[in-house]
Specification:
By secondary structure, this protein is α+β, with helices and mostly antiparallel strands. The chain has three helices and four strands; from the N terminus they run βαββαβα. Pfam families: PTS-HPr.
Length: about 90
């Protein structure tokens, strides 16, 4: 299994609110990989949990770190970053 770790800056003016958190959590779960998300320097949470993702309180300008452990980790990470950037 492969591991991919990527950081990104959240550009959405309202941060990661309910809709993007739900889409991100669904994509993380559908990937079949173990996925976590954290604010840079903070504790990682299960990215498949909408409430956990929203509980991070990610705002515009925050840097997040996504870690994917599983088959096709790089591709899954790219997809998850796209999910957040498109919102």
């Amino acid at each position: 299994m492969a591991i991919a770790i990527r950081t990104a800056t959240v550009n959405d003016p309202v941060g990661i609110h309910a809709r993007p958190a739900a889409e991100f959590a669904q994509a993380a779960t559908a990937s079949g990989c173990a996925v976590t998300i954290a604010k840079q320097g903070g504790n990682a949470v299960n990215a498949g949990s909408i409430l956990s993702v929203m509980g991070l309180g990610i705002k515009q300008g925050d840097t997040i770190e996504i870690t994917v452990n599983g088959d096709n980790a790089e591709a899954v990470t790219n997809n998850l970053i796209s999910t957040l950037i498109e919102n």
